[in-house]
Amino acid sequence: EDPQSDSILEGLNESQHEAVSAELRNMLIIAGAGTGKTRVLVSRIAWLIKHYHIAPRNIMAVTFTNKAATEMRERLSLMVGNSVQSSLWANTFHSICLRLLRAYAQYAGLVPGFTILDTDSQVSLVKRLMKDMNIDTKEFKPSDIASNISKQKENGIRALAYSKKVSVKSPDYVKVTDRVYTVYEKVCNQENSVDFSELLLRTVELLENNREIRELQHRRFKEILVDEFQDTNSIQYRFLRLIAGPNSHVLVVGDDDQSIYGWRGADVGNMRKFLEDFSDVKQVLLALNYRSTQKILDVANTIIGFNSDRLMEKVLKGNFGEGDKVKILNCANNKVEAATVTDRIAALHDSGVDYRDISILYRNNYLSLDFEQNLLRKHIPFVIYGGQKFFERAEILDAIAYMRILVNEDDDTALLRIINTPSRKIGPKVVEGLRTIASERNCSLIKAIRLLEAHVNSGNVDKTLSSLYKKISVFYELFKALNEKRQNMSLSAFADEMLRMTGLYKYYQEKDFKDGKDTEEHSRYANLGMLISNIKEFEAAPPAEDDSSEENTSESTTEKEKKTEDPLLTYLSNITLVSTGELNEEGGTSNVADAVNLMTMHASKGLEFKYVFLVGFEKDILPSRLCAYSDKSLAEERRLAYVGVTRAKKALFISYAQVRSMFGKSEPTGASSFLRDLVREYKGKQDVPLMIEAVKGYSFY
Ligand code: ATP
Ligand code: MG
Known about the structure:
Blueprint: H1 14-20, E1 27-31, H2 37-51, E2 59-62, H3 66-80, H4 83-87, E3 89-91, H5 93-103, E4 115-117, H6 119-132, H7 142-154, H8 159-165, H9 172-191, E5 193-195, H10 196-209, H11 211-220, E6 223-226, H12 234-243, E7 249-254, H13 270-277, E8 282-286, E9 288-289, H14 294-305, E10 317-318, E11 326-333, H15 334-350, E12 358-362, H16 368-377, E13 382-384, H17 394-407, H18 412-418, H19 428-441, H20 445-457, H21 463-485, H22 491-501, H23 504-515, H24 524-540, H25 555-561, H26 567-579, E14 596-600, E15 609-614, H27 631-645, E16 648-662, E17 665-668, H28 673-682, E18 690-695
Parallel strand pairs: 1-7, 1-8, 2-3, 2-6, 4-5, 6-7, 9-10, 11-16, 11-18, 12-14, 12-15, 13-14, 15-16
Antiparallel strand pairs: 16-17
Bound molecules: adenosine-5'-triphosphate (ATP) and magnesium ion.
């Protein structure tokens, strides 16, 4: 069979074809939105498997979100068969590092079963430590200190190295970060937990320090492909350099105009570095856009054209004709805006459009509420991707904290969250007493409880200690009972039982009832019920695991590669990675039926929808109030607008309000400066690609 007539190449244009079927080598594809970068990357993997006979297990594909990874695996199994599903590593940087750390925990200085700290837990741990150290948490916000610590880790700077940089002349927040970082690092090690940036840093250090493991990965990952490369940060880039062996090949694809995570440390300069650090890189440019109609692209080109410092100027040229003009909806206020958008969506649906082909994109999560409520009122199904979602609700975090101490009993953060939730009359004094013992003995809280228990059982009667134990034993007995229960039950049955035994069901049921009178708060009990459903779904279809059989693994490492089979642990890892806004994921594992997609513009990167509503395109929202005064962040905000615009395939609506109610007060607002630039640009010209429509009053209900 002639490879050139392979269906993988069908319909590809010349440059796409060239990239997909290129010889084995390093490649860099820089190209604008919708030009088929992701498609080329996926086809390239299929090509590698089919024509270069690279085994799926020898390929690593890095995506920006878990959702993208799942889609990639699905598309690949259609192209080259199902075997790909289980053995190909297609994942985010975080998930890939987690996988490596689970496999080589001991070598990375971790105990298998370690906990992943999501952003919330990280902040609460930092806060707790700051309180212990008598640092004013009003003057220094724990979330700031936590993110400062993460930033250091992303630059590969450990607490000790950070300390060396700090001097008497350093600003106060640097000194505070330094003090907290040192203790934070120690406590994380002691609690056997890793935060998100630690996942990367640990892996990088593991690969740097352990030649055997590094070379094992070099032999394994022969072909490495990275999507959305413009948004990699320095630690991810370092990881990439380490994981790629002398005989591996790396393909990266990206668009400098879509670099929107600079605020989180992403460095578009990595595209330039790649050319220097990797040998003999073939560069491919893709020019044709296969996503949007030309009028949408014209608007996108004009918006991004206002940015001066671009790596490469690209003008998007479409393939599908002119299409309709972009509609600008100038709305009297935010209620009118939400009602109008909802109404248009209903009309589209009436004319035969599927809800899933429609999306509402906004700059900030808080903007979703008006739309959520309007959609609910009109019985239009919708899903929210990312942001403050299900797994960030207090009742869910409580349930998860119980699960966490069951898989990692040293997880003090989790333990402190629930030792007295619901109330077991274990007051702050008792907890303090316990923490004192733990810190004297330099051990975790659960170990401190065991010490207490041994002390009491030994007949030693120190009054204070035995009364302390008596108070705590209520919790400890529960902990032991839970541990026993979970041995012989399915995960979902156990979780249900756990919520009963811990009293969480009852606690939240009563709380719901008490708070029932005020609005939305009476659904916490139902949320716990949802959690059980979620676990059931997970049991029915756990995420694909790889074949951990290492054909060329040396003896010492094979054993460590055996994965931990504890379904609770797998479930926890899964939800921590899948549910956090940090990683831009949808809040759940269920397959969503036909529903409108709501998400932030950040979360929409890489996706496409037939109909897109860019809402809240307003002064002080986009560009964000915080970003309007620096050229650098203004340019990033413009790229964000560009990402939003280029998601639309058939039709684009951009809406803004003249008056917006915030904190209960109505404030005058108006069109975003990006929009005003756009309108000015087209003034007096012919064939303007947009039209403005004024929407007044509450005409919809
Ligand atoms: P982004 O920058 O937004 O991530 P991208 O460059 O990754 O975009 P893709 O998502 O790969 O672009 O492709 C955009 C759309 O164009 C997809 O629907 C894809 O299937 C389609 N497409 C890409 N190449 C072709 C082609 N040669 N013929 C037809 N459709 C194509
Ligand atoms: Mg893409």
